[in-house]
Structure formats: C-alpha cells, structure tokens
Amino acid sequence: MKPVVTTIEQPALDGSIPASTPSRRQSEDYETWLADVWPHFIATAANGRTFTCYEVADLHKLPDPPNPQAHWGRLMTLLKDEGYIRTAGWACSDRPTAHHSGVRTWRGTAAARRDAAA
C-alpha cells in the first residue's frame, strides 16, 4: 500500500494562503507501519540514551500510523511490554503541534543493549 501524504493549508491572518508543505506520510495499514518503525525504536533503545517517541519519529522521518492518536502510544506500550524500554520521566515535547506539553521519556533496557550486541 502506498503511504498517504496530506497537506494542511492554514490561511494567514491577512487571508493569504502560504505555500503548503507536505505533512508526514501516513500508513494505511497498522501491521506494515509497525514493521517499518519497530527497528528504529529498537536501535534507539539499544543505545541507552533517554528519548521521546517524537524524537525518534522525527529523526528517522517515520510515517504516521493509521490512527496516530492511539498507535504511537500502543507502540511504546509494546516496546515496554517486550522489555526493550522503560519509563525514564517526563519532558516538554519538541513536536510543533504539542505546544511544549509534557510527554513521557523512555530509556532502553539492558536487554535491548544485549539484543543489539548479539
């Protein structure tokens, strides 16, 4: 399936329409999306540094899932349940649309580092 690219055209205060920029790709299928993004999060967990979900997605230009409001959180829950990451605390989000709201931070576990070394 081809990823869907959407654009957002917000008029300026003077009524003009600025040049549109494409938003992130969006996958149509959850399983395909999960297979695409999983290795990037595993590799990030293996390096042992603290990170946010958005940092990894933005760094690797990962596509959005079919339901971004639910699937990003589900991904992090799966990674935690599989033992690759643990909660590390909270930070202000770098995501432009989040207005610096609080987000969970994560850190890779020793198991993630062992799997990367194997």
Topology of this structure?
Elements lengths: L29 H17 L3 E2 L1 H7 L8 H14 L3 E8 L9 E7 L1 H8 L1
Antiparallel strand pairs: 1-3, 2-3
Specify the helix fraction band: 25-40%
Quickly give the CATH architecture: Orthogonal Bundle
CATH class: Mainly Alpha
Q: Work out the strand percent.
A: 5-15%
Helix count equals: 4
Structural class designation: alpha+beta
Might you state the CATH topology name?
Answer: Arc Repressor Mutant, subunit A
**Shape type:** globular
Report the sheet with the most strands, covering strand number, pairing sense and barrel closure. 3 strands, antiparallel
Main sheet strand line-up:
1-3-2
Structure summary, number of beta strands: 3
Tell me about this structure.
The protein has 118 residues and is an alpha+beta fold. The chain contains 4 helices and 3 strands. It has a single domain, classed as Orthogonal Bundle (Arc Repressor Mutant, subunit A), CATH 1.10.10.10. The termini are far apart. The mean pLDDT is 83.
Briefly, what is this?
This protein is of the alpha+beta class.
Descriptive terms for the model:
4 helices; 118 residues; Arc Repressor Mutant, subunit A
